[in-house]
Amino acid sequence: MSSRRPNLTGFDTAKFAAAAGQPANDPWARHEAWRYTGPFTRWSRLRGAFPGLGIATVAFAGYMVYETLFMSPAHGHGDEHHGESHH
Protein backbone atom coordinates (compact mmCIF):
# COMPACT_ATOMS: atom_id res chain seq x y z
CA MET A 1 0.00 0.00 0.00
CA SER A 2 1.28 3.47 -0.88
CA SER A 3 1.95 5.99 1.88
CA ARG A 4 0.86 8.89 -0.37
CA ARG A 5 -2.71 10.02 -0.17
CA PRO A 6 -4.59 10.10 -3.48
CA ASN A 7 -5.19 13.55 -4.93
CA LEU A 8 -8.91 14.25 -5.03
CA THR A 9 -8.60 16.66 -7.97
CA GLY A 10 -6.77 14.21 -10.22
CA PHE A 11 -3.92 16.70 -10.64
CA ASP A 12 -0.56 14.89 -10.72
CA THR A 13 2.11 17.22 -9.33
CA ALA A 14 4.96 14.95 -10.47
CA LYS A 15 3.86 15.19 -14.12
CA PHE A 16 3.43 18.96 -13.79
CA ALA A 17 6.96 19.38 -12.37
CA ALA A 18 8.41 17.29 -15.22
CA ALA A 19 6.57 19.32 -17.85
CA ALA A 20 7.45 22.70 -16.32
CA GLY A 21 11.16 22.46 -17.23
CA GLN A 22 12.83 24.38 -20.07
CA PRO A 23 11.43 23.23 -23.44
CA ALA A 24 13.86 21.65 -25.90
CA ASN A 25 12.88 24.01 -28.72
CA ASP A 26 11.95 27.40 -27.25
CA PRO A 27 10.27 29.50 -29.96
CA TRP A 28 10.99 32.73 -28.04
CA ALA A 29 14.72 32.06 -27.41
CA ARG A 30 15.71 34.15 -30.44
CA HIS A 31 13.67 37.10 -29.17
CA GLU A 32 15.08 36.85 -25.63
CA ALA A 33 18.74 36.60 -26.68
CA TRP A 34 19.24 40.40 -26.78
CA ARG A 35 18.74 40.58 -23.00
CA TYR A 36 22.08 38.87 -22.38
CA THR A 37 24.31 40.35 -25.11
CA GLY A 38 26.05 43.65 -25.77
CA PRO A 39 25.43 46.34 -23.15
CA PHE A 40 23.09 44.03 -21.23
CA THR A 41 25.67 41.40 -20.23
CA ARG A 42 26.15 40.72 -16.54
CA TRP A 43 29.59 42.41 -16.53
CA SER A 44 28.27 45.56 -18.22
CA ARG A 45 25.42 45.85 -15.74
CA LEU A 46 27.83 45.39 -12.81
CA ARG A 47 30.23 48.04 -14.13
CA GLY A 48 27.42 50.56 -14.50
CA ALA A 49 26.07 49.89 -10.99
CA PHE A 50 28.72 52.06 -9.28
CA PRO A 51 29.49 55.07 -11.48
CA GLY A 52 32.51 57.04 -10.32
CA LEU A 53 33.84 54.31 -8.04
CA GLY A 54 37.05 53.94 -10.07
CA ILE A 55 37.78 57.68 -10.07
CA ALA A 56 37.01 57.94 -6.35
CA THR A 57 39.31 55.01 -5.55
CA VAL A 58 42.22 56.53 -7.50
CA ALA A 59 41.65 59.97 -5.91
CA PHE A 60 41.55 58.48 -2.42
CA ALA A 61 44.71 56.44 -3.01
CA GLY A 62 46.46 59.54 -4.35
CA TYR A 63 45.45 61.54 -1.29
CA MET A 64 46.70 58.79 1.03
CA VAL A 65 50.09 58.77 -0.73
CA TYR A 66 50.26 62.57 -0.53
CA GLU A 67 49.37 62.54 3.17
CA THR A 68 51.92 59.85 3.95
CA LEU A 69 54.78 61.51 2.05
CA PHE A 70 54.27 65.25 2.51
CA MET A 71 52.20 66.00 5.58
CA SER A 72 54.05 65.95 8.89
CA PRO A 73 52.25 64.77 12.03
CA ALA A 74 51.00 67.46 14.41
CA HIS A 75 53.38 68.20 17.27
CA GLY A 76 52.35 67.48 20.84
CA HIS A 77 49.58 65.00 20.07
CA GLY A 78 51.57 61.75 20.09
CA ASP A 79 51.62 59.28 22.97
CA GLU A 80 55.38 59.63 23.38
CA HIS A 81 54.96 63.18 24.75
CA HIS A 82 52.67 62.25 27.63
CA GLY A 83 54.01 61.62 31.09
CA GLU A 84 53.31 58.59 33.22
CA SER A 85 50.56 60.42 35.14
CA HIS A 86 48.24 60.33 32.13
CA HIS A 87 48.06 56.53 31.85
Automatic annotation (TrEMBL):
Transmembrane segments: 48-66
Pfam families found in the cross-reference section: NDUF_B12
Keyword field: Electron transport, Membrane, Mitochondrion, Mitochondrion inner membrane, Respiratory chain, Transmembrane, Transmembrane helix, Transport
InterPro entries: NDUFB3
Localization annotation: Mitochondrion inner membrane
GO cellular component: mitochondrial inner membrane
Bilayer topology term: Single-pass membrane protein
Recorded superkingdom: Eukaryota
GO process annotations (BP): electron transport chain; mitochondrial respiratory chain complex I assembly
Role according to the record: Accessory subunit of the mitochondrial membrane respiratory chain NADH dehydrogenase (Complex I), that is believed not to be involved in catalysis. Complex I functions in the transfer of electrons from NADH to the respiratory chain. The immediate electron acceptor for the enzyme is believed to be ubiquinone.
Entry's family note: Belongs to the complex I NDUFB3 subunit family.
Protein name listed in UniProt: NADH-ubiquinone oxidoreductase B12 subunit
